Model the fold of this input.
Amino acid sequence: MGCDFSSEAIQNAKNEAQELGLHNAHFEKSDVAAFVKKEHFDLITAFDAIHDQADPDKVLQNIRMSLNTDGIFLMQDIGASSRLENNMDHPLAPFLYTTSCLHCMTVSLAQGGKGLGAMWGKELAIKMLNDAGFANVTVKKLDHDPINYYYVAKH
Done:
């Protein structure tokens, strides 16, 4: 199941699923800050998306509530620190901060949101996951992906 508040994105996803013959894929237009299917999913994923949300705290809480007790939330997001001084040697920092300010933050702020931006960082991400009820959070880096962290979060 895929969710987005953009009708165009949902229609594109439906069209692609149909072209690929994916009969078990379902997409619905919805605001994930209001989306809860209590203990319904074994796995929920979010790729480079939580920091764009107007209310990322609520989204993370809804994700946790929508997972089965032994479910897993896999979140991919920018591999940076929440502290600017820790990102000074990051080879992509200028690009990532620019993208964060010109796109990610403005997407959230335009919805009356928190404006976390892509460079919200690992420390804040872990804190927010913990605050949402994820007691077990592991952060992974993949050798082939120099840009992202992969958070594996469980109840």
